[in-house]
Every structure is written in structure tokens, then in C-alpha cells.
Amino acid sequence: xxKHALNPTLLNLGPLEIRWYxxxxxxxxFVVRWYGKKRIETGKLKLTxxxxxxxxxxxVLAMIVGARLGYALFYNPSYFAASPWxxxxxxxxxxxxxxxxxxxxxxxxxxxxxKKLTFLHMxxxxxxxxxxxxxxxxxxxxxxxxxxxxxxxxxxxVLFPGVTEPRHPTQIYEAAYNLLIFxxxxxxxxxxxxxxxxxxxxxxxxxxxRFSAEFIKDIPMYGPxxxxxxxxxxxxxxxxxxxxxxRFK
Length: 249
What we know:
By secondary structure, the chain is mostly helical. About 60% of the residues lie in helices and about 5% in strands.
């Protein structure tokens, strides 16, 4: 058994608190920006550096808005229907990956059209580092001691604050599979595939891993599946469509 003794706060500077979770997302942002600049330099992303900065800054906001609305709609609609103003209380926790994904998707499609680009060109160029950024976010969840799994007697079970028995460190499992997805996408980044293939591959791989990991998470069931599993099903088929599209013409 491993006892969780990590402090979620990195620094306290008077009224300013710097938390590891926020730092992980900041690190993800800079990794995506660095990677995007490299793709611009090699001609794989048809944007200027300024356009990339504008895109990424807006995507952060789109992700937060989408993740918060997704959490409210998918996971706790009755609570937020009774107290709708609490949607703005992001510091209380409650963000949905699938909601954030939809927010990023919607804004990216609009942005691509405004720049007369195809969305899939842009998605293929940036999806690899976004998978890496998602891994950083899961590490932040582990440091926070949240979103852990069901009880386990395995040697790497973690005794998180507020629980009485070791739990699966599902945040680490999820960070690991996101790192694997990043490695796969990065190794394929220069292949001469049709547009949308890398993006579709991300959706297929993520949905399979996420669906599997949900079985050992300590979260409510919605019928036979968790909400994360229900939401991963359409994500899988959307990715599969992109992978198989035009294959049989």
C-alpha cells in the first residue's frame, strides 16, 4: 500500500495560491504551443504563429466552458438546474473531458472555417500534444487525491485522503494510456495519411482506453454503464468513421 501524502498546493503567496493541478494544465498549454510552432515550421500546419497563439488562447476558454457545461448536463443536471449560478463556480471542481472535447471541437471548427482551412488538417496537426496535455491533467488529479478507483489489495493501491482502504490509482492509469496515445500519434505524425486519420485514431484509442478504465473507477452507474462509458461510445464511432471513410470507394 502507498499512502498519498502529496500537497495539492505548490506555493502560497499571501492571497495567491499556486496549485499543481493548474500548473499541469499550464505545462500542457506550452507543450501544445511548442509542438504547434514546430508543425508550422515544417509546413504541416498552415497557420502563422500569431494565429496559433490566438487559437490556443481561445481553446483554453472553450475547453473550460465545455468541460463545465458537460459536467452540469451529463453528471449532475438536477443540482445545477436548482442552482444554475453554481455552473460558474469552477473552483468547486467538476469538469467533464467529453464536454471539454465538444467545446474544443466546436471552436476549432469555427476557427478553421474563418481561416479557410479544413478542420481535419488542423486537428491532425495538433491532436498528438493534446493527448500529452491530457496526461498532465490526470497527474494533476492524482496530486489532488481525486477521481481514484475502487478498493484494491494490489501492492500499488493508494490510500487517498478521506478513504479507509487502498484504491486503484486510476489517475495514473489514465495518465499512462494518454502517454501511450501520444507516443502512437507522434510516431505517425509524418505519415502520408488522408486528413482526419490521426484525429480519428485519437478518438478510437481514447474511447477504448477510457471505456476500459471506467470499470475500476469509484463513480456512479447510469444503468449498466458509467456516464464516461456512455459518452465514449459515440466518440469511438466518430473516430472509426474517420478511419474508414473513403476506404471502400
